[in-house]
Amino acid sequence: MNKQLKFISRTVFGMFLILFFSVTMIQFVSADELRSNELNARTVMNGYKIERGSILVDGEPIAYSTPSGDEYRFVRQYSDGALYAPITGYFSHSQGMTGIESSMNRDLSGTGDAQFFTRIMQTLTGVEPQGSSVELTIDAAAQQAAATAMEGFEGAVVAIDPSTGRIRALYSTPSFDPNTLSSNSDAEIITNYRQLEEDPSQPLQNRATGGDLYHPGSVYKLVTAAAAIESGAATPSTEFDNPTQLSLPQSSAVMHNSTRQACGTGAKATLQQALVFSCNIPIAEMAMGMDRNEVSEMANAFGFGQDITIPNPVTPSEAPAPMDDAQVALSSIGQLDVRVTPLQMAMVSAGIANDGEVMTPQLVDRVITPDLRVEKEYAPETFSQPISQETADALTGMMEHGVSDPGAYAANAAIPGVRVAGKTGTAENGTDDAGNERPYTLWFTGFAPADDPEIAVAVVIADGGGEAYGFEGGSYELPTAVGKQVMEAVLSE
């Protein structure tokens, strides 16, 4: 009998310890994560009890709360909603919250740790509680330039200040109007959300930082070249065999350059020629002569495969280690299993522009209290140093030639009186169920001025530019023109 009582006592005590541990985890360890979860309806509903702080761009509110005169007390409103939706997300009492509304929710709702004493003072003085405002790093002119240049396309633009990591533009299209999800009518919100969710153009998908990701194509050659130069395997003037086609080892696949011809007229082609004219074969030959993991490790150093928040979450880009030489060749030109976000490609260009140092990308500049005190300020932080200044200088020089040389593919990115560095990319996407080749994904990435960089950009356009271009637009005409307009918007200020 005593043995049974001891067993029961120990079991109950063990269950008590498990329960105590679980409650502790929920109340203390996981509390912030649970509060910020976009599916937590209580958090959203509590947010309507106070006047939520504004989201600001250049000091002007792009998201703000106004009295509603109903049980919710306030309603969330968005000026230029579709322009900033990929950044702000939405705040909805039936659909939760996304974007900055979610990632900065505790500050916007006035429940952050830094606002503890502010809440006490408001209680003592009888002042109505109010959330803090969040000032973004976005440049309104650059954001508008991105939206205007991308009109009619599907894709995204990201622009970063190379020396600080401050994101100056982040735009995804097609976009949506978050006002349609922020009314105080649940029925209206649900109807609008269902329409957005069923829209085949997927406007709720943020193509700048997530979604299905894209093959980078030839813009990934910057990573391959960085790995080669940094390891000592090549310099811009290193020459490679220049055939019209390359049979891949241990494979029946044959690689061609985009022109189906050799890279230039000589028997050899340099690394610089291969980048300027986006030739596949010399790049693949170079990669196969290196350690098999060299390029994927360089990609990881630039941020591929890593969890990044800006503070909105970013889907990690992918650059798996190749299994054989054929995979080395294909992945070196941004095909096979390599997939990226435009944010990640902007980080690559920004790192090259910043002497090889990649800064942590950041969307938030500071948090401001209702009485206009700066509550939090976000200082620049180093993310990684994947390459040396010497390697960055070599890459910059080749990217400049990619814009300025006669016949260079990125020539459309040239800005009069400004030295521009750039690289185009055209990514293949395989065939559909009928065996027809899917439209290409078009890329441009670069920075300006090349000698004193102020802005780095990445542009992606899906489906070869869409129906208006017969799904066959070129990477040297469409995304380069977009990148130029965004860079000009920043440089003209």
UniProtKB/TrEMBL annotation:
<dbReference type="InterPro" id="IPR050515">
    <property type="entry name" value="Beta-lactam/transpept"/>
</dbReference>
<feature type="domain" description="Penicillin binding protein A dimerisation">
    <location>
        <begin position="52"/>
        <end position="134"/>
    </location>
</feature>
<dbReference type="Pfam" id="PF00905">
    <property type="entry name" value="Transpeptidase"/>
</dbReference>
<protein>
    <submittedName>
        <fullName>Penicillin-binding protein</fullName>
    </submittedName>
</protein>
<dbReference type="InterPro" id="IPR012338">
    <property type="entry name" value="Beta-lactam/transpept-like"/>
</dbReference>
<dbReference type="GO" id="GO:0008658">
    <property type="term" value="F:penicillin binding"/>
</dbReference>
<dbReference type="GO" id="GO:0071972">
    <property type="term" value="F:peptidoglycan L,D-transpeptidase activity"/>
</dbReference>
<dbReference type="GO" id="GO:0071555">
    <property type="term" value="P:cell wall organization"/>
</dbReference>
<dbReference type="InterPro" id="IPR001460">
    <property type="entry name" value="PCN-bd_Tpept"/>
</dbReference>
<dbReference type="InterPro" id="IPR054120">
    <property type="entry name" value="PBPA_dimer"/>
</dbReference>
<dbReference type="GO" id="GO:0005886">
    <property type="term" value="C:plasma membrane"/>
</dbReference>
<dbReference type="Pfam" id="PF21922">
    <property type="entry name" value="PBP_dimer_2"/>
</dbReference>
<feature type="domain" description="Penicillin-binding protein transpeptidase">
    <location>
        <begin position="155"/>
        <end position="470"/>
    </location>
</feature>
